[in-house]
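[Automated response] Your request has been received and processed.

Submitted sequence:
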Amino acid sequence: MKKPVVGADGELAVATVMSVTLSVDHRVIDGALGAQLLQAIVDNLENPMLMLA
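Generated structure:
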């Protein structure tokens, strides 16, 4: 989905934004571990070349 965002230089720009949600049972998986997994997924989606290293 395209949304307006403020760039690093402070200017308004249009960016493609995707929401990612992870639902875990805290009795089985610690929420911090789930957050690490979700962050790894986000990192790979933002920079797919990392998956080749």
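Summary generated for your ticket: Helices lie at 31-46. Strands lie at 2-6, 12-16.
If you did not submit this request, please reply to this message.
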